[in-house]
Design brief:
The complex is a heterodimer of chains A (713) and B (120). By secondary structure, chain A is of the alpha+beta class. Chain A has 5 domains: 143 residues, HPT domain (Four Helix Bundle (Hemerythrin (Met), subunit A)); 155 residues, Histidine kinase CheA-like, P2 response regulator-binding domain (Alpha-Beta Plaits), CATH 3.30.70.1110; 55 residues, Helix Hairpins (Orthogonal Bundle); 180 residues, 2-Layer Sandwich (Heat Shock Protein 90), CATH 3.30.565; 138 residues, Roll (SH3 type barrels), CATH 2.30.30. Chain A is 44% helix and 21% strand. Chain A has 22 helices and 22 strands. In chain A, helix 3 runs antiparallel to helix 4 and helix 4 runs antiparallel to helix 5. Chain B has 120 residues and is an alpha/beta fold. Chain B has one domain: Rossmann fold. Chain B is 42% helix and 20% strand. In chain B, helix 3 links the parallel strand 3 and strand 4. The chains are: A alpha+beta (713), B alpha/beta (120). At the A-B interface, helix 1, helix 2, helix 6 and strand 14 of A face helix 1 and strand 5 of B.
């Protein structure tokens, strides 16, 4: 469904709902006539009005929202016992209610009649306000801050240096606010240096763990203006100490004029030799050092000030070079691959170090290891970032493909691309090429009909294929959509039966039936036309996507079109993994699939013949014992752990002995001999130098679900 | 793992709009019709709650208070939907433990901007 259709659907829901609310409002008002003091009734009236107004404006009924606002204002007074319910007020309110109903149905020609009627009623409503001694001012303006924020601020390329001090209230955590998220948001505005002020942190035994003692000094160079900074802190500005000071404006066109220092001038004039000057300067101690020693400035205060000095200098100086500097350089791809490998190795070594340090309980070494961890994390992110390319370059290649192919087939097809700027790992983009070509060919060849057939169905003669890419919560979503003939689930089912891929009495939803096209052996030779010229089927596409640790899904509405959704992880080389142990062997579960970890003995598990299920808060979740899956023996621990994983809305549990923790996992691919192993997608090297296998969660989920289906059947 | 957001509103049109805007942006959405309903549906990981204030059975303010009393959800960001931009209502909400607010009417982009602000 398109965005517009969804919006229209929501709008219809609003109309429906508003009618209901107006009915309810009428009932409540009539009841109120006989018991004007009933607070519950007054609240009901108020709530109805409130909802009509609030959603009205959201779905474009601005006139209704404005009008209802006036009505609501009056009833707010009634609710607060500042105005009494009179029959005159009820009359007017009932009239207003009828008017709103009319406004809902109005089709334009009655608009002016409604308009004048609404003005009359509003005037009388305001009369009630005056009666209660409340002028209409203030309340009327209430709506204004919904719009118009943020537009101002960017004034060309002129950037300003701001000094921001953020001292949150100690109880800030209790409102669900994460101060670090705010700082992160601030750094997105420009070049930002942050100094954490920790002098207020009390001794451990006096500390309240849910209080915030830290505060921050920040220097920000941004072109976005003060409002943008205030917007970052909008939710907390009332209960924190926030100061935003403008330090100076840096105009790019202005020539740098850092005044010469005394020493420089003296040397230039020949009054002093440079060696002598340096000798003298060595004896002089920095001002900051003198001040801290005298106890006049705290060392953190000094650090913050020095940071400011540095940032301001940076902002002034590099501008001149900036214009000449080249914005990008070309690097051989092999060098990037090598860099990626090295970072991978570094992450492994760092993990080993961390593990070792944890065993030693050495604080000095510990903080060093933490520092290294932070640096290697950043290095990893940056290195992976270098390898990212916008997917748009491949999209452009497809324009040609679609044009040539559709001509050959006598079809008219337009290719629309969206989200070409979405970035993906270079290797992923390369490996994505073949599957995409294949899917596009399918759409052109089998999806979009000939112009005559399309016109007979009442569609425009020109077909449309949409190629889109977007980022969504740590994954990249790629969609290939056509507005062609679509696929009839019944036909797929019949064919799968004929090929013996499913049994005759297997119950599958339409959605599941569609996914059968990805099974090996589904595609047939008859389907090959000389255009697509392929002897391969969708199973090859799926294998290609699987190799990228991606997920592929087919959706289709007969006569409306077909859409293929590909979900891909952002990168291939390094993932966050959850390390678990089964019979002294370690395994890694990709963290992206993990939902939660629970203990097995906490709930009753029923041991079916084939499938085993646990009761997870009322939901039956099948589970697999990794011990059985990998044929491991050895003593069972007293408490077994279940890691709940979720792949494409299918939850299963993996029973393990022990959950060790979350680690950066560098994926090493398995040799050819092991490639066909079910349930394993790769291996990694642990912190202690031993190996761990990475589980192929998708395959395990498939197996668990099959178990259950067979158990039921 | 996609982030899970709970939306609480007695108006089905608002729920629909909030729901599809969030799903479109890749979030998982749990819907509830009022505070009482929301409390029964609150389980597992919830990364953010968006709640209306005026609702039957249990209003938004009381709901926020009760959520903050639950150890598992003490620090979950809660954003209230309000037409009342009056400082008073926002203040009551904040005291109850709300993280921020969105003033109705809002556009999908404004909603997403606030979500991105509190869910990191």
């Amino acid at each position: 469904m398109s965005r517009e259709e969804q919006m229209q659907q929501a709008k219809n829901a609003y109309l429906e709902e508003a009618r209901e609310l107006l009915g309810d409002l009428e009932d409540a008002l009539l009841e109120l006539e006989s018991s004007p003091e009933d607070h519950e009734l007054i609240n009901r009236v108020f709530r109805s009005m409130h909802t009509i107004k609030g959603s009205g404006a959201m779905f474009g009924f601005d006139d209704i929202a404005m009008f209802t606002h006036e009505l609501e204002t009056v009833f707010d007074l009634v609710r607060n016992d500042e105005l009494r319910v009179t029959s005159e007020l009820l009359d007017l309110t009932l009239k207003s209610r009828d008017l709103i109903l009319e406004m809902l149905h109005q089709d334009g020609c009655h608009a002016s009649a409604c308009q004048s009627e609404s003005e009359r009623i509003v005037t009388r409503l305001r009369g009630f306000l005056e009666q209660a001694g409340k002028g209409p001012s203030g309340l009327i303006a209430a709506e204004s801050d919904a719009e118009g924020t943020g537009a101002t601020g960017s004034s060309g390329e002129v950037s300003t240096v701001f000094r921001v001090r953020f001292k949150p209230d100690a109880r800030i955590f209790l409102t669900g606010t994460n101060p670090l998220a705010l700082l992160e948001e601030l750094t997105e505005l420009g070049n930002c240096k942050i100094v954490a002020r920790t002098e207020n942190i009390p001794r451990l035994d006096e500390m309240d763990p849910v209080s915030c003692y830290t505060w921050w000094d920040m220097i920000l160079v941004t072109s976005r203006g003060k409002e943008a900074i205030q917007d970052v802190f909008i939710f907390v500005e009332d209960d924190c100490e926030l100061t935003i000071q403008e330090v100076e404006t840096v105009d790019p066109d202005e020539v740098a004029h850092v005044g010469k220092r005394l020493g420089e001038i003296l040397v230039e004039r020949g009054d002093v030799k440079i060696q002598d000057l340096q000798e003298i300067l060595k004896q002089q101690r920095p001002l900051g050092e003198l001040l801290t020693q005298a106890g006049l400035v705290s060392s953190q205060g000094l650090e913050a000030a020095l940071t400011e000095q540095e940032v301001v200098r940076e902002a002034r100086v590099p501008r001149v070079e900036h214009k000449e500097a080249v914005s990008s350089i070309r690097v051989e791809a092999a060098k990037l691959d090598k860099l990626g490998d090295l970072v991978g190795e570094l992450v492994i070594v760092q993990a080993r170090l961390t593990q070792l340090v944890t065993q030693r309980h050495d604080t000095a070494l510990g903080s060093l290891a933490e520092e290294l961890e932070r640096l290697s994390d950043e290095l990893r992110d940056n290195t992976l970032g270098i390898r990212m390319l916008p997917i748009g370059s491949t999209f452009n290649k497809f324009l040609r493909l679609v044009r040539d192919l559709s001509k050959e087939l006598g079809k008219e097809i337009e290719l629309v691309t969206q989200g070409g700027e979405t970035e993906l790992d270079k290797n992923v983009i390369e490996k994505l090429n073949d599957p995409m070509v294949h899917l596009l060919r399918n759409s052109i060849d089998h999806g979009v009909e000939s112009p005559e057939a399309r016109q007979a169905k009442g569609k425009p003669g020109k077909g449309k294929i949409t190629l889109s890419a977007e980022h969504a919560s740590g994954e990249v979503l790629i969609r290939i959509m056509d507005d062609g003939a679509g696929i009839e689930p019944a036909k797929i089912r019949a064919k799968a039966l004929e090929k013996g891929l499913i049994g005759p009495d297997v119950a599958l939803s339409d959605d599941e039936v569609l996914q059968l096209v990805f099974l090996p052996g589904f595609s047939t030779a008859e389907q090959v036309s000389n255009v697509s010229g392929r002897g391969v089927g969708m199973d090859v596409v799926k294998r290609g996507i699987d190799a990228l640790r991606g997920v592929i899904k087919l959706e289709s509405v007969p006569n409306k079109g077909t859409s293929v959704l590909i979900k891909l992880p952002l990168t291939l080389a390094i993932i966050d993994g959850l390390q678990v142990e089964v019979a002294q062997e370690q395994y890694v579960i990709p963290l992206s699939a993990v939902e939660e970890c629970v203990e097995l003995d906490r709930f009753k598990s029923n041991f079916g013949e084939n499938g085993e299920m646990i009761n997870l808060r009322g939901e039956a979740v099948p589970f697999i014992r990794l011990r059985n899956w990998f044929d491991q023996n050895g003593a069972l621990p007293t408490i077994e752990q279940v890691v709940i994983v979720n792949v494409q809305e299918q939850r299963i549990g993996l029973v393990v002995d022990k959950v060790i923790g979350q680690h950066q996992t560098v994926i090493k691919s398995l040799g050819r001999v092991y490639r066909e192993l079910d349930g394993i997608s790769g291996a990694t090297i642990n912190g202690d130098g031993t190996m761990a296998l990475i589980l192929d969660v998708q395959a395990l989920v498939g197996a668990a679900v099959r178990n259950v289906v067979q158990g039921d059947g | 793992m996609s982030k899970r957001i709970m939306t609480v509103d007695d108006s089905s049109s608002v729920r629909q709009m909030v729901g599809f805007t969030l799903k479109d942006a890749g979030y998982e959405v749990v819907e509830a019709v009022d505070g009482k309903d929301a409390l029964t549906k609150l389980s597992g990981t919830v990364d953010m709650i968006i709640t209306d204030l005026n609702m039957p059975n249990m209003d938004g303010i009381e709901f926020i208070r009760q959520v903050r009393a639950l150890p598992n959800y003490k620090f979950v960001p809660i954003v209230m939907l309000t037409t009342e931009s009056q400082a008073e209502k926002k203040q009551v909400g904040k005291e109850a433990g709300a993280t921020g607010w969105i003033v109705k009417p809002f556009k999908p982009d404004q909603l997403l901007a606030v979500v991105k602000k509190v869910v990191r």
